[in-house]
Amino acid sequence: MTHKSRIIGILSLSVLAFLLIMSGSIACKKAEEKKTIREWAAGSQSAGAAGQEGFTIKEGVNDLSGTVKSSLGKYFYISQHPGFDIAASGSGGPLPLKDKDVKVKAFFKHEIPSLLIAQSIEVKEENGQYKKVFTAAGNAAIPEDFFDQKMRGDYQELKITNILKSEDWENKGKGKVYGKPLAGADGKVNAVSILDDKGKEFAKVIVDNMTEYANYYISKLRLFDTYWFYLNIKESVDKKLRPKNKELFHADIVFCGLY
């Protein structure tokens, strides 16, 4: 074998090794992304038993404890029990629960498998003692803005083919679009940027209102830039104005999710 042939052989092996390393790295990255989505999805749906080892949810009042992973308004969830959202109905405002160790008595109904209604909440203080910060005023009431997962089927994907084609969304009442939230100067979501298959914006939905539960789910989706928005569709933007700002119609957001 000539010196030139050996050099070509060595370079070929080097290129092959590089490609194998890169393909392995990409495969690992994709696997990690899929794992993250699976873990998030698993933490957003109840299987009837979740959380700490030996803990099983039962009909009626349950005792839970752990660290609050995410909290917004009356909603929160505990990292040791990721399959359940917990609602402190009638709390009168946001509770100081984020990253706190808590003990919770919460009511469970099989008809609503992903939601627990808090009856009382205690927060661990710096001295190691627990202080009660919430007590339910009455029966375990489901919040009006709670989005039951069983309602997902009522919100079909809107196939937007053209910003001037109003029939793609009018008279449908409900629907969902994939995109990213756009916030105003006050930090509140005021529009949804709808993306095409290449991730480019081609249209927008004007957001008039957004439920607290939807905002809570955005806080749970903090690791993701884009997701599905479940909309109650309202009036369309005038056709003459659509080409300028790409705005299609007004809507209220009732839920956000990865699917």
Write the layout of secondary structure elements.
Layout: H1 3-42, E1 60-72, E2 75-78, E3 85-87, E4 101-108, E5 115-124, E6 130-135, E7 174-183, E8 189-195, E9 201-210, H2 212-220, E10 227-236, H3 242-245, E11 247-257
Parallel strand pairs: 3-5, 9-11
Antiparallel strand pairs: 1-2, 1-4, 2-3, 4-5, 5-6, 7-8, 7-10, 8-9, 10-11
Give an overview of the whole structure.
This protein is α+β, with helices and mostly antiparallel strands and 259 residues long. The chain folds into two domains: 60-135, OB fold (Dihydrolipoamide Acetyltransferase, E2P), CATH 2.40.50; 149-257, OB fold (Dihydrolipoamide Acetyltransferase, E2P). It has three helices and eleven strands; from the N terminus they run H-E-E-E-E-E-E-E-E-E-H-E-H-E. The protein has helices spanning 3-42, 212-220, 242-245; strands spanning 60-72, 75-78, 85-87, 101-108, 115-124, 130-135, 174-183, 189-195, 201-210, 227-236, 247-257. The strands form two sheets. Strands 1-2-3-5-4 form a five-stranded mixed β-barrel. Strands 7-8-9-11-10 form a five-stranded mixed beta barrel. Strand 7 (174-183) and strand 8 (189-195) form a beta hairpin. It is elongated, with a radius of gyration of 24 Å. The termini are far apart.
